[in-house]
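Reading a protein record of the kind used here takes only a little practice. To see the layout at work, look at the sequence and tokens printed below.
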Amino acid sequence: MKPERTARRLEGLRTAERTPNRMALQLKRLAVGQNVNDGWIAKIVILLVLTVIAFLYVRPIIDMISTSMKSLEDLIDPVVGVIPRNVDPQNFIDAWNGLVYPQSFASTLTIALFGSAFQVFSCAITGYALARLQFPGKNVFFFLTIVTFLVPPQITIVPLYMIYQQLGWLHTPFVFLVPALLGQGLRGALFVIIFRQFFLSQPKALEEAARMDGASAFRLFFRIMLPLASASCLVVFLFSFIWYWNMYYEATLFLSKGFTPLSIRLSALEMQLIGNQSLTFGADAGKDPIAEGPKMAAAFLIILPPLIVYMIAQRWFTEGIERSGMVE
């Protein structure tokens, strides 16, 4: 009997020892499961919020594409929603012809592409000088740069018009390319500040090592600092490209004849669609003033190139925002 009692006692002790471990293991599994559930709930909530925000941004583009594909019958029919009954390519044909799209696209691309490249080059040099070089009146020049950014363009538009008229630059791309090459241009002061903040964040050991090897200021900028600022260059280039592409106020004053960008053509197309009865909008051509289809088709043709550029450079643009001086 004694060995049996001893065996029972030992078995009871082992069971008592295993019971707390089992309970702790169950509690641990429950806690882990609860943390996992909390993580999934948070992810679902974030996903729903981002979906709603994305829909708010994408909805205007969806409406634009839908309207551009509708015929006149679909536009005036309240039953037709986002999806048209019959896709009408005549809207895009009218928009293409009214915008004089190949010529206007070439004019807009020339200004946006070369103007953005010139601004990246000139603003990078200016930002590096304000950040790294020591010269008399440095703080005064930086203060004037900030003031230039705060001055509305309407104040300087009349003197600029008179200067461009005397130089014979009106209705030519020089009214935008030359100021961009000199660091002025559209929002040039903002780009100078972006480059200045980036170059200030770089370690001074890079410059000291290069100067010990005999590098000059220009060689130091082009061989070391400018390659490091590739993210900032991409951000400035994309911002400048979009601003040049969508400009209307300055283009209306300086480029109203001959060299005409897409923004001015869109305004002229709207007046043409309202007053010109030669465009066809269905069976009752010329009797109804509704011209939303061609206008939306023209707007979509204008925003399509920047959308393609952004979709291609989206990842690098996001990384450039994080690495540039805009986060400082």
